[in-house]
Amino acid sequence: MKKLILAILMLASLVYAKEKVEMTIVSIDSDGMGATLKGDGNVQKGVTGIVVTKLDGQRDIIVAAARAVSSGNEIKVRFEMFDDLAQEALPRAIILPKVGDKAIFYLFDDRATIIAKNQADYQKVAVSDNKTWVHPDLFAALLTKERVGEPKAKHFASFCKLYAVGAVYFAIKDKVYIADCQSLEVLEERAFASENSKDFESPFFKRTGEIETGYMGMMKEKVEDFDSYYSALIGR
Sign of torsion, CA 103 104 105 107? Predict the structure, then answer.
């Protein structure tokens, strides 16, 4: 059911997203794992998107994910496996990206989540931008299920795939860092008037209570210092 919802959201984005940027593959790297793309719009380094090819010359099919490793209207990308809609019971089609295929970026640019140390900071970020905010409670629920107290990049990527989230807004000290949800590369920095409180509930503001980690009282984990932890996570 969750993958069906994601598929519906993706199809809606392909039709209605105003901010999406479409580019065409003009050459494939010698190792087959990257390409050069050209288009009319600009794409930032670190943004992730999808590669779409024509099946039987008619139907569109997503064949890979693509991460921009340069910026502009002519960019380099590296390909990654696209498994967002994969079903364990079904075989996966192996179709490689080729020259002429389209790559689409900023599909879920209107959907974002906020990582903040307290409710006051969360609310300040929420009113600063016109986005559809996917509440971090949903992320906390996934971490609770996996008993994870220190979310890593892979946990953010899984969460964002599940809920079709395009960006994460990290409220750290006096800045808000807007990062691509799959790569966690920072795309934009903004000044921010934080409450600067040292007290917070690990690993970020949420309404779901403490995340139980470890087993039998051992191997417990939590974020001890919000600013230091997330600054390191996004390379700031």
Answer: negative
